[in-house]
Predict the 3D structure of the following.
Amino acid sequence: MKKILITGALGQLGSELTVALRKKYGVDNVIATDIQQPEDSPVVTDGLFEILDVTNIVRMKELIEHYSVDTIIHLAALLSAVAEAKPILAWNLNMGGLINALEMAREYDLSFFTPSSIGAFGPNTPKDQTPQVTIQRPSTMYGVTKVSGELLGDYYHQKFEVDTRSVRFPGLISYDTLPGGGTTDYAVDIYYEALRKQGYASFIDKGTYMDMMYMPDAVDAIIQLMEANSEQLVHRNAYNVSAMSVAPEDFERAIKAHIPEFNLTFDVDPIRQSIAESWPNAIDTTVASKEWGFSPRFNLEKMTEDMLIQLKKKGI
Ligand code: AKB
């Protein structure tokens, strides 16, 4: 990775990945792009930034040529709950952006990363220790776009020798930028509300387990996978990764260790609850560990401690 173009750089993952990549590869070697340009974001102010609507391949091509890009990290996409509310928009944006980015990778011989998700699994997938290779028949539009993305990644690798790589991210928890429109977003909201109100009404029900991971581990996973030797990679699109399998009451317990008066209640959103129930409880990440050394550093307790410290620093 020498000249990296990131799409969707202002999103939850992009905003932290951009900062980490600029630090590691140099400010002049990371081109952050997004469809909007807020003046107050460090993604915009602290390095190269360009407006890019990923459905516009002409503009994408212009930027790739202008900056002599050699790697594309394609993050622009709608998350699960929004995609379920706007399925046609989700198909057009998630698949339209992805095929444009893959075409650019083919034409300019770029290294390529795009995230898949635990949303690529469905109700027929084994729920516990979900294997790397298993049934993938999702019941959401988000899942349909994620499975299609995995297949396209493999297709471009096998047919055109594009160096495509991907991971199936679980819910990502971070203090920097809020996620928007995901099913796992409750796991971020709960920390904000724990500090603001010492209480939280969860839109995901008690006993609903999903995989989660702290943002520093997600950023490290992308860098580690992109730096791995190509010959090591058998299951490229996409590796199961996760750091913990947790239900709302597990967050409650972890938060109570720091804020004893914290009170968890439930106000379940039927749409997001049904999406959550169609996803695994806990996925098996051993293939990612074996092929490129995936090894997350944060468990629930360590993450909770850090989240609360960082949010307090932000004045929450
Ligand atoms: C979502 O909830 O949509 C995302 C995901 C797990 O892909 N966080």
